[in-house]
Description:
By secondary structure, the protein is an alpha+beta fold.
Amino acid sequence: MPTPKQMEKLAIEAARRPGPSTAAPDAPLPAEYWESVLKDPSADETGAQKRQRRLSEIQRHVLRISCRRCERTVEIQKADAVRLYGGNALWKDVAQRLLDNTCQQRTGRHEEDGCWPAFETP
């Protein structure tokens, strides 16, 4: 255990040393950050456009859909989805079928049955 005099000396030395550069929370982000954001291929797509993509256009290997109602998540490999539904199938249709095939929220009323998809970025 250091003595009080040694602790004061360590505190003075630590205050003199420059620490890691941390930007203020309201400081502007560097230009490199914005360049990488704008170069992202999905930056110019809206959520509706992403849902309207065909399976053959999606780059990810694992597709994921979750239900806003029961909070269940279903995953499928893209290769399996293409094999089952075809490469021209729309992602939103495939996702709805995946949720409906395993839906556990059955009330008997057509308007209330089924899952409510929350599309994650494929």
